[in-house]
Amino acid sequence: MKKITILLITLVTGALVFGQNLVVNGDFEIGANGDPVPSWIGFKNRIATDDITAAQVGQIENGDGALNQEFSVTPGEEYAVQFDYRWITTAAANSNLIVRIKDAANLPTNLNLIGGTTSNGYALNTTVDQWFSGNFSFVVPAGITTVRLTMFKGNGNKPLNLDNVSVTSSTMSLNDLDQLTFKTYPNPANDILNISASSKLTQIEIYSILGRKVLTKDINTTEDQINISNLTKGVYIIKTYIDNAVGSFKFIKN
Fold first, then answer.
1. Model confidence over 226-247: pLDDT tens digits?
2. What is the pLDDT of residues 187-201, one digit of tens each?
3. CA distance to 151, 162, 164, per residue, from 148 (Å)
4. pTM of the predicted protein model
5. CA-CA distance, 254 to 234, in Å (whole number)?
6. Residues in contact with 174: Cβ distance below 8 Å, sequence separation at least 6, in sequence order
7. Around Cβ 109, how many Cβ atoms within 10 Å?
8. DSSP state of 174
9. Domain 174-253 has CATH 3.40.50.10380
10. Pairing of strands 160-169, 106-110
């Protein structure tokens, strides 16, 4: 079950590191069995040993409970969230939980998720006694510098085991892009954004700074032109799929 929580994308020329895990104790290796989970906040949670994998995990106990953690982020950046989870069979009837990212300074505010299964969250599979992996990403809106990863379930729900929780920046640095011989121009752009790379570009997705997808295009070549004339002026995130690599970067629409 345990995984390396530094996001690596392997290429022919080597590996790109997109960022260290922002979650502390996301593999739940810190803490003694039965104790509340260290470095996390919430209630009715504990360190446990999963009876299927024998791995040490974080558990939200029977009935209601929560595991939450806050961390600093950069406005305009995209972050990838990954985690493993398993519902445990008990007398409790339900297995419902939605993972959310909240503005830590204004907790009623849920951020929009890319790959979320609801309008502002990620609903877990309800099948019991089977490990699943969840993943989504989010773009940090302007003015937000701290967010909270929230895993809360109400009363009447089964226990939930969690492992390998990670939040990593998915925005490529200039050095990362250089390894792919990636180019985009002009930036700022008016109507056309040119992109190219040494490996095949397969798809691009463009998101507003609030995380709303505004454009998708399938590509099957090493260079292409993206028509952005219908976009309003502002800062955007372009998510680029290059062979087996996925990365994001910002551009300005004039």
1. 999 999 998 888 888 887 667 7
2. 899 999 999 988 889
3. 10, 17, 17
4. 0.69
5. 7
6. none
7. 14
8. H
9. no
10. unpaired
